[in-house]
Amino acid sequence: MKTKKFIILPIIFILIVVVIYAFSHRKTDINYETAKVEKGNIVKTVLSTGTVNPVTLVKVGSQISGKIKDIYVDYNSPVKKNQVIARIDPSLYEAEEKKAGADEESAKASVEKAEAELCYAKKKLNRYAVLLKDELVSKDDFDIIEKEYKLCLAGFLSAKADVSRAEASLKRAKTNLNYTIIKSPVSGIVISRDVDIGQTVAASFQTPTLFTIAQDLKKMQVTADTDEADIGCIKVNQKATFSVDAYPSLVFQGIVTQVRNAPEIVQNVVTYDVVIDVNNPELLLKPGMTASVSIVVARKKNILKIPNASLRFIPPFEEELKENTVWKVLPDGKLKPIPVKLGIFNDRFTELIQGNLKQGDRLAISIGKESSKKHRIFRWR
Q: Would you call 77 helix, strand, or coil by DSSP?
């Protein structure tokens, strides 16, 4: 019995030592995926999507109603300022102009007639004034002649007013007749044509759009829908780049020229329009294209930067993420928590402002695959 006891006790002791050693070294047996603290540049960008449009887009309409008689331009037609691009049937408006002209002539004739009657009434009044002075007529007779004179004067003034009304009507008729000729208000290119020959346009309630003209397609702008969380970083004159699906290998350069204050709210999502001007000398960009926009909002050069993955890493012996803490991998494989103060960031790196780290230090970003399997077996809760 004593012999067995002496054999069993050492074996139990050895097993206890092995178990203690295994559990005391369970952390150092874990391999970590690491990334180095680097020195370099960081460019922070804001991403959004937008629509390409001409800087100046003019909608050409009609101020009068009528049937389209002629169209002289089509899609993509270049036009000059004041060039005739369409015509509305002028028949009705020509007739109105003739009528207004005849009314003006009639009103002028009425003025001449009233003026002649006024001249006669004045002479008669003067004669009666002399007769009244010599007491050759009664005061009542003179008052009657004076009344006739005043009536003639009122008739003359009324006739002159009729001439003014007739002239205004004629001017309006001529203006409406001129409106039958649709001219381009600017030099540019026709983007869209919304009417056909024979179509009737009605301008009674609102001005119908006949054509849309881009003033200069060599200068375009992108209106980008920017999330409210990012709008505070964007300022006028910041540089921006964007791409369009039509030319996936090309990157277009632009400048932020306007940050609009009016919010766009769609399904409780708030965005703001950011306008980016871009040159389009080769006319590659076309109105309506969808642009994937990247706006440079901050840039730092020759700084220490840490990988973003290190800020999301949770060691196996921690239950939750420690904010603004990274885990440095020491030479013996153990982890050391390092509090850090952070600056600007992009999708890969974050600026290190303060923290006991130097260039080349290794930071844990994940647990190695083999260690992950062991960790799932031995991790204590």
A: coil
249 vs 292: CA distance, rounded Å: 13
Assigned token pair, 244: 């369009």
Burial class (CB in 10 A: 0-12, 13-18, 19+), 221: buried
Q: What is the mean pLDDT of each run of 10 residues along the chain (381 residues)?
A: 55 59 52 91 92 92 91 92 94 93 92 91 89 85 89 91 93 93 92 91 80 91 93 94 94 95 92 95 93 93 92 86 89 91 90 92 83 44 28
Cα-Cα-Cα-Cα dihedral sign, residues 147, 153, 158, 162: positive
Pairwise CA distance, residues 224 & 53, whole Å = 11
CB atoms within 10 A of CB 240: 27
Give whole-number Cα distances, 357 to 44, 228, 297, 310, 351, in Å.
22, 34, 27, 13, 12
CA distance 211 to 180: 15
The verdict on pTM exceeding 0.90 is no
Coil, helix or strand at residue 121: helix
Q: Across-strand partners of 227?
A: 271
Phi, psi of 265 (to 5 degrees): -115, 115
Residue 292 burial class via C-beta count within 10 angstroms: exposed 0-12, middle 13-18, buried 19 and up: middle
Q: How far is CA 87 from CA 22, 91, 100, 180, in A?
A: 95, 12, 22, 5
Q: Kind and range of the H or E element at 376? A: helix 369-378
Dist CA 229 CA 255 (whole Å): 21
Phi, psi of 163 (to 5 degrees): -65, -40
Query: How far apart are alpha carbons 244 and 361 in whole angstroms?
Result: 40
Alpha helix (H) ranges present in 25-138?
91-133
